[in-house]
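pinging the channel bc i need a second pair of eyes. not urgent but kinda urgent?? the chain im working w is below, pasted from the shared doc
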Amino acid sequence: DYAKIKPGLTALEPNGGSGILACAMRDRGLSVEVAELDPRFQIILKQLGFRLIADDFLDAVPTQLYDRILANPPFSSPTQK
């Protein structure tokens, strides 16, 4: 509610992780793209049908402007197991 998301908006999830937040946004009608450093999560995000725009969103060159950028920052380093 705080992000004022509504169907039809475009969104970026810059730390896609396992896709929980991206799926929640998509379920609310947003068109969502993701970035993700961890190759294991990249596979999951692609299997969930998300377009991966970059490994590191700080290096991303977006092809569009997003209406919203929503993120849940990573809780671990991609190198941690």
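so The helical segments are 20-27, 39-47. and The CA atoms of residues 29 and 78 lie 29 Å apart. — does that match what u expected or am i reading it wrong
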